[in-house]
Amino acid sequence: MTKDRNTADVAFIQALAELLNKNDLTELSVKREYGENDSLNVRVSKQTNVVTTVSAAPAAAVAAPAAPSAPPAAPAQADADPAQHPGAVTSPMVGTAYMAPEPGADAFVSVGATVREGQTLMIIEAMKTMNHIPAPRSGTVKRILVADGSPVEYGAPLMIIE
């Protein structure tokens, strides 16, 4: 019976993956109940293409979705979509963003603050683990794009550092 259930679970997960692709979804989470204290939790997700570009200029290191090079008019487009901004700091995972080390404490950074490479910008909680998000480069925080306690997706822009 266990072997049949394992085969059925594999078929179920494959069907979820097909559903994910067919409906152009990025993530799908399902809990299948078999009985009391017996269930299957499945999360199927699709990773988008991410390109990391590093330049000799300290403010030019980027971790953002792939985009073709644009003419000098690009800053206007970057303001329209923060993920395309050259100073965007993107989320390395899915989770909940926290701007301070604990409730009621001062935020790690604020708009206008000068940060150094490696300094903690925020925490993203994923699966009950607090993950410190370091600054990828030194600079000044120009915009904070997420609210304290808000959910974030993989690759979502968190803040702009120039």
TrEMBL record:
Residues 75-84 have a biased composition (Low complexity). Residues 86-162 form the Lipoyl-binding domain. Keywords: Biotin, Fatty acid biosynthesis, Fatty acid metabolism, Ligase, Lipid biosynthesis, Lipid metabolism. Coiled coil: none annotated. Pathway: Lipid metabolism; fatty acid biosynthesis. The keyword Lipid biosynthesis applies. Pfam families: Biotin_lipoyl. Residues 61-92 are annotated as: Disordered. One of its GO terms (molecular function) is acetyl-CoA carboxylase activity. NCBIfam families: BCCP. This protein is a component of the acetyl coenzyme A carboxylase complex; first, biotin carboxylase catalyzes the carboxylation of the carrier protein and then the transcarboxylase transfers the carboxyl group to form malonyl-CoA. This is Biotin carboxyl carrier protein of acetyl-CoA carboxylase. It comes from Halodurantibacterium flavum. The gene is accB.
